[in-house]
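Worked problem 6 (solution included).
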Amino acid sequence: MKFRFLILLLLSAAWQHMATAETTPPAVVLPPEVHEIAPEQVERQLVDHLDTLIIDVRTEEERRTRGHILNSLHHDYFHGQKTLDELARLDKTKPCIVYCAIGGRAKLVAVEMHKLGFKNILLLRGGFNAWTASGQAIAK
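Solution. The predicted structure is:
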C-alpha cells in the first residue's frame, strides 16, 4: 500500500513539473543596451529622434482587428527567419521601438536585433495593450 502511494506521489510531482515546464515561457535576458519606454514617452522620443523606427511584431490578424501604432513597420514574430532577414535589412544605427501585444515577443525580437547589430533598441513597456490603455492614438 505504501509503495503504491509513493509511486502515485512521484507520478503526480512529475506531471506537475511537466505541466509547468510546458506552460511557463522561458525567461528572457535582455542585453544591457535594450531599454524600456513607456507609452507616454514615445512622442518625445519621436520628436527628439525623427529617424526612430517603430516595429510591430504582432500578427497580421492582431494588426487588422486591434489596430497599430501609426507608421509602424510590420514584422511578424511568428514568421521566424523571414522576419530576422527583413529586420537585418533595416538601418541598425536608427533607434527602434519594438512592440507586440504585451511585451513577450518584443523582448525575444529585441535580443535577436541586438545580435544583428542594432545599437538603440527600445521596448514599448506593456506593449500595444498598454499603448491603447493609456489613450494613445492608433491606426486601423
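Discussion: The CA atoms of residues 25 and 104 lie 9 Å apart.
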